[in-house]
Design brief:
Elements (H helix, E strand, L loop, with lengths): L6 H4 L3 H10 L4 H23 L10 H17 L5 H4 L3 H17 L6 H19 L3 E3 L5 E3 L2
Antiparallel strand pairs: 1-2
Helix pairs in contact: 2-6, 3-4, 3-7
Length: 147
Amino acid sequence: KDAALSLDQVLPDSTNICAEYEAAHFNQVSDVLHCAGMVALLLLLIVVPLKPPPINAILWGPPIYYLPAWVGHYCFQRDIPAVFSYGTTLHGWWMGEWCALKQLFSGRILSTSIEWVSALVLAIGFVQLVTTKNTKITRDGQKTKRE
C-alpha cells in the first residue's frame, strides 16, 4: 500500500467549510455582531502598538473577537456557534476563521451601509472600552482614578 496522503486528505476543501460557515450565519444582527468583533480585534492589534493601553487590554483580544459573535448566535440566531463544531482541531479552527475573514472583506457578510456603520461603531466602542485607562472626568474637568 502507498503510505502517501493525498492533498485532499491533509487539507479539507476550504470551499465546503466556507459554504458551511456561510450557511450557519443567517441573521443580520448576528452578522453585524460577528463583523464588529472581527473589526474590533483588528483595530485592537493596530492600536496597541501605537497607543500603549493598560497592560490587560491585549488579553481582551479573544473575548473582543468571540463574545459579540456568541451573543449573535445565542440571542439572535438561537443556535450554537459554528466554532464549536469545526473548531475542534487547530486546522478546523483556522479554516473557519479564514472563511469568516474572507467573507468579511469580500463583502459577503454585510450588504448595506447601515450594517457596516453599525459594525464599525460597535467595534470602535469595544476597543475604546478595553484601551481606556481607568479614569473619570469630574464636573470641574479634572481626571481622577476610579475606585
